[in-house]
């Protein structure tokens, strides 16, 4: 059968050598699949890393400086009120924790207060969380008003 067309020539060559090219095509297909899978995993990992690494609106801190005195985790409510004056706003709630199994249970009630201190428009606001009268968390918020 004479070959009269270029496309027929391509088909003839591909059909003739397909048994030689098939293993390479399979290898390239698998390599492409593995590459795409690696890319998908790496992109997913980057997205998750970016989401966890993004700074939130409130930044955790260990200390707060009020009128030259350092307030840290573990300070009492009296010390905070003494050095930082009255908070701009506050809220109070009760947290109940149940420990143990069905037979022996321990119920722990904690008083939790959230105080927001506003030091003016040129400084950050701070949220101080007190648990049973002691500072448990200090968060830096946005600029004050």
Instruction: Round the mean pLDDT to the nearest integer and report it.
Output: 77
Instruction: Please tell me the total number of domains.
Output: 2
Number of strands: 7
In oligomeric terms, what are we looking at? Answer: single chain
Q: SSE order in H/E notation?
A: HEEEHEEEE
How many DSSP helices?
Answer: 2
Helix proportion of residues, in percent?
Answer: 25-40%
| Beginning-to-end CA distance, first to last residue | 90 Å
Low-pLDDT sequence parts: none
- Rounded to the nearest angstrom, the radius of gyration is 33 Å
Described by strand count, sense and barrel closure, the largest sheet is:
5 strands, antiparallel
Percent of residues in beta strands: 35-45%
Approximate shape: flat
What topology, given as strand order, has the largest sheet? 1-7-6-5-4
List the helices and strands and how they pair.
Layout: H1 6-53, E1 59-61, E2 63-66, E3 69-72, H2 77-84, E4 89-100, E5 105-117, E6 124-131, E7 134-143
Antiparallel strand pairs: 1-7, 2-3, 4-5, 5-6, 6-7
Describe it.
With 145 residues, the chain is an alpha+beta fold. It has two domains: 1-54; 59-143. Helices cover 39% and strands 37% of the residues. It has helices at residues 6-53, 77-84, and strands at residues 59-61, 63-66, 69-72, 89-100, 105-117, 124-131, 134-143. The strands form two sheets. A five-stranded antiparallel sheet has the order 1-7-6-5-4, with no helix packed on it. Strands 2-3 form a two-stranded antiparallel sheet. β2 and β3 (69-72) form a beta hairpin. The N and C termini lie far apart (90 Å). The mean pLDDT is 77.
